[in-house]
Design brief:
20 helices, about 650 residues, alpha/beta, about 20% strand, Rossmann fold, single chain
């Protein structure tokens, strides 16, 4: 017989070769960790059959793959070569299988401690919008099914008929009920579910073949539950204390290699000598490659690549104005409208629960269609996770959150981005509205925390008027940085935010502050809404108390314009930081630390912070900002130093 289940002899041997290579490599990595040559590896032994079957039905370098921490066999099956795998494991040994192969469109979701599922949504929608017929493969550990983001991804995939293949790898070593899993998924429309023997390659291949075909035809997602035995400990950080392959003894029923090998020999496709030759050659290749890597004869091939969304722009900081005035809300819309014309890869994503009170989302959708202005049926706090997939797929997403609370809820996705070396230059803009602080009992009314300033590799923008809002948002859209853009809702229709509109070519550079009022006695450092209130106090101090105050609008909290701050402090020798947030919880603490470390020798008095306080009432609580009289008292006291 020349074939078995439609597979030629050559194809069958290639499949066995990939499975055997994965098994032997698992064992080698396990023992390398015992010699402290790498931190940890997570075994895929026992799941090679279903993983190779999945890889067999995908198109390398075209379909996207989001892998869990045990998908070594899949990486081999999709075509990643032995040298690349070993180099990544050994050269980046402090991470737990957290290796991305971008040329193969393989993204590792994270370590076994924290997985990230939602980015698959962005990649799948990108595939549909581009009519590329691509499929997104999403490998799921069984524990991931207990998380809310799994069901959010399922729900969004079903409603939008996204081409996502959910592969749930369930260990038979655990006493878990498959039927309960299927029952939990039974209420979703457009979802195909199948429960298979993950040990049997041919059964697994049929399931993935059907799922991939229906995904490419636009019929929606599939969930494949592969039942297999874990033949080795799940991870090897305690390798010295355990022997490899002692959890379950291999036999025909639980070992995909033995099952496939037996099927092949039973059909007389090849004999045992061919297997022996193949296995000996693989063993030798593994040993030779490990020896070369240990001798540093391989370069550290990290395979990082600039994303296609990193489009180069000429930055024009010359300001030419249009003969019209706009408010802050209109400046946001105009900036986005102009940048959507400039960059066809720019997207705006928001949650369906977003009320869109300024009608910015709806107006842009009418101009640019729902392929570029995308409403997702997920929580606002999950938007960042989904938009990581857009960035990975080559787009520049602008994420409109509903509140600051959503930003804090999304910190694990920010951690995923900024602790993963291949994503350090991933561009994204987060538009974060700052709501009215007056009602402390409103769960949406969280305040800006100084910890946000400590997130690495980001820009933080907080404009106070329409001109700066437009220029900084346009700069954020063109930058290859990750930008958090704060918008105080009180500024949207405020008369104090109205300014002459700069033209479509104007970009405001990051880290450039401006002096709103010049003075020599006191330096006021502020941003956002408080710029206008600080100017009112400064004018009173000058007119009534003969105190000449300089007011600096920071505009950017990160990076800071330290040159301008230094120049002002050298004149006044005194500084006051004013912000709307709580006195002991706002960014003032971080700002005062930076100023103290950088300009202590120029100061004649203490660094003063002015912020809100909590007032406890009988039935509620609210934030109280100091009255003008209190601020004036603080300033006059500081002038006596």
């Amino acid at each position: 017989m020349n074939n078995i289940h439609g597979f030629s002899k050559k194809k069958i041997l290639d499949i066995y070769k990939s499975m055997y290579l994965s098994r032997q490599l698992d064992e080698k990595l396990f023992y390398l960790s015992s010699n402290q040559k790498l931190f940890s590896s997570i075994s895929s032994s026992g799941f090679e059959g279903c993983q190779i079957a999945a890889a067999n039905n995908l198109i390398p370098s075209e379909d996207w793959s989001y892998l869990s921490s045990r998908d070594l066999a899949f990486s081999i099956g999709i075509g990643v070569d032995l040298k690349k795998i070993l180099t990544k494991f050994i050269s980046d040994s402090k991470k737990i299988n957290n290796h991305n192969y971008y040329n193969f469109k393989i993204i590792n979701k994270g370590s076994f401690l924290e997985s990230v599922i939602l980015p698959s949504i962005g990649s799948a929608i990108s595939s549909i919008n581009e009519n590329s017929n691509q499929v997104v493969y999403l490998s799921i550990d069984f524990k991931d099914m207990l998380k809310g983001e799994f069901f959010e991804t399922i729900q969004c995939s079903c409603l939008k008929k996204l081409p996502i293949i959910f592969h749930i790898q369930k260990s038979k070593n655990l006493d878990l009920n498959d039927q309960n899993i299927l029952n939990n998924l039974s209420g979703f429309e457009n979802l195909f579910t199948v429960n298979i023997d993950g040990v049997n390659f041919f059964e697994s291949n049929l399931a993935f073949q059907k799922s991939v075909e229906r995904a490419r035809m636009g019929n929606g997602p599939s969930v494949i539950i592969s039942n297999a035995f874990s033949l080795a400990s799940h991870f090897s950080s305690n390798a010295k204390e355990y022997d490899y392959n002692k959890i379950t003894e291999s036999n025909f029923d639980n070992d995909p290699l033995l099952k496939l090998k037996t099927n092949i020999t039973d059909f007389d496709i090849c004999d045992i000598n061919e297997f022996s030759y193949l296995e000996n050659k693989i063993d030798q290749d593994i040993d030779n490659n490990i020896a070369l890597i240990e001798q540093n004869l391989f370069d550290d091939d990290l395979d990082f690549k600039e994303k296609s969304s990193n489009i180069s722009f000429n930055f024009d900081f010359t300001k030419n104005t249009i003969d019209q005035k706009i408010n802050f809300s209109q400046s946001i819309y105009n900036a986005l409208f102009e940048e959507f014309l400039e960059n066809q890869k720019l997207l705006l994503c928001y949650s369906k629960i977003d009320k869109d009170q300024q009608k910015i989302n709806n107006r842009l959708k009418k101009k640019y269609s729902n392929k570029r202005v995308i409403s997702l049926p997920i929580n606002s706090s999950s938007l960042i996770g989904a938009c990581i997939g857009f960035s990975i797929s080559g787009y520049k997403p602008i994420v409109k959150l509903t509140s600051l609370k959503d930003l804090y809820s999304s910190l694990k996705y920010l951690n995923f981005l900024f602790t993963n070396q291949s994503f350090l230059n991933m561009p994204m803009v987060l538009r974060v509205p700052i709501k009215d602080f007056s009602n402390l009992n409103d769960s949406e009314n969280l305040m800006l925390n100084p910890g946000i300033l400590n997130i690495p590799n980001i820009k933080i923008v907080y404009p106070s008027n329409a001109e700066d809002g437009k220029g900084l948002l346009k700069m954020s859209c063109r930058s290859n940085s990750f930008v958090i853009f704060f918008e105080n809702e009180k500024l949207y229709q405020s008369e104090s935010s109205i300014s002459i509109e700069p033209d479509e070519n104007y970009l405001h550079p990051f880290g450039k502050s401006s002096v709103k009022k010049e003075g020599n006695d006191i330096t006021f450092l502020t941003y956002g809404l408080m710029v206008h209130k600080t100017l009112e106090v400064a004018n009173i101090l000058e007119n009534d108390f003969n105190v000449d105050c300089e007011v600096i609008d920071l505009k950017c909290l990160k990076p800071l314009d330290l040159n301008l701050i230094e120049k002002s402090i050298k004149k006044s020798n005194k500084i006051i930081i004013i912000h709307e947030e709580l006195l002991d919880q706002g960014p003032g603490s971080q700002l005062s630390t930076i100023i103290s470390e950088s300009f202590f020798e120029f100061l004649d008095g203490p660094i003063i912070r002015i912020g809100s306080k909590v007032e406890l009432l009988k039935d509620s609580s609210k934030y109280i900002f100091p009255k003008k009289e209190e601020i004036i008292q603080i300033v006059t006291k500081l002038t006596k130093y």
